[in-house]
């Protein structure tokens, strides 16, 4: 990236690249990171992904969701274009809703080793039922481990109306 040192940008290759390739199936290898310039401070980064698509592993029908990914970074952060391409790679991938959100969270944990992360999928109804899986993780042995437990046990205590989608 013009004007930026490798220490500032890490190994980013996709941002600004005009020859973007879209994977046709699940592709965690497209994820890229860059250094967190504020590793001494706890703060949340939230991605709202309203166009997530995957396939039902049984019927092959498309499933649509808004994904919410929130994390507290440590040393490195996920680059947003690579995250977009990674999420796009689920478009032709068959997995249940619950699997998708857990796979995404696990890949991001492996990639960044965040202090805390949560992934919430709000899938559109199919067959009259919407499914909203939520998973989270707090780094063991830190205050974030307890935060994860507290957020999980108090998650979605006030369900929304179904007619808001």
From TrEMBL:
Active site per the UniProt annotation: 56 (thioimide intermediate), 63 (proton donor)
Xref: PANTHER family: NADPH-DEPENDENT 7-CYANO-7-DEAZAGUANINE REDUCTASE
Matching InterPro entries: GTP-CH-I_C/QueF, NADPH_dep_7-cyano-7-deazaG_red, QueF, QueF_type1
Any one GO molecular-function label of the UniProt entry: preQ1 synthase activity
Domain of life where this protein originates: Bacteria
Entry similarity comment: Belongs to the GTP cyclohydrolase I family. QueF type 1 subfamily.
Function: Catalyzes the NADPH-dependent reduction of 7-cyano-7-deazaguanine (preQ0) to 7-aminomethyl-7-deazaguanine (preQ1).
Binding site for substrate: 78-80, 97-98
Lineage: Bacteria, Bacillati, Bacillota, Clostridia, Eubacteriales
Protein name: NADPH-dependent 7-cyano-7-deazaguanine reductase
NCBIfam families: QueF-II (TIGR03139)
Catalytic reactions of this protein: 7-aminomethyl-7-carbaguanine + 2 NADP(+) = 7-cyano-7-carbaguanine + 2 NADPH + 3 H(+)
Keywords from the UniProt entry: Cytoplasm, NADP, Oxidoreductase, Queuosine biosynthesis
């Amino acid at each position: 990236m013009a004007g930026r040192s490798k220490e500032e940008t890490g190994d980013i290759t996709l941002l600004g690249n005009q020859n973007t390739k879209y994977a046709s199936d699940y592709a965690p290898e497209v994820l890229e990171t860059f250094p967190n310039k504020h590793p001494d401070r706890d703060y949340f980064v939230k991605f709202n992904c309203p166009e997530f698509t995957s396939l039902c592993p049984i019927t092959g029908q498309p499933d649509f969701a808004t994904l919410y990914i929130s994390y507290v970074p440590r040393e490195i952060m996920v680059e947003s274009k690579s995250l977009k391409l990674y999420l796009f790679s689920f478009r032709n991938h068959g997995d249940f809703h619950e699997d998708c959100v857990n796979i995404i969270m696990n890949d991001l944990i492996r990639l960044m080793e965040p202090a805390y992360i949560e992934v919430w999928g709000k899938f559109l109804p199919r067959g009259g039922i919407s499914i909203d899986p939520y998973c989270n993780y707090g780094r063991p042995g830190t205050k974030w481990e307890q935060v994860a437990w507290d957020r999980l046990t108090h998650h979605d205590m006030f369900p929304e109306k179904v007619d808001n989608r």
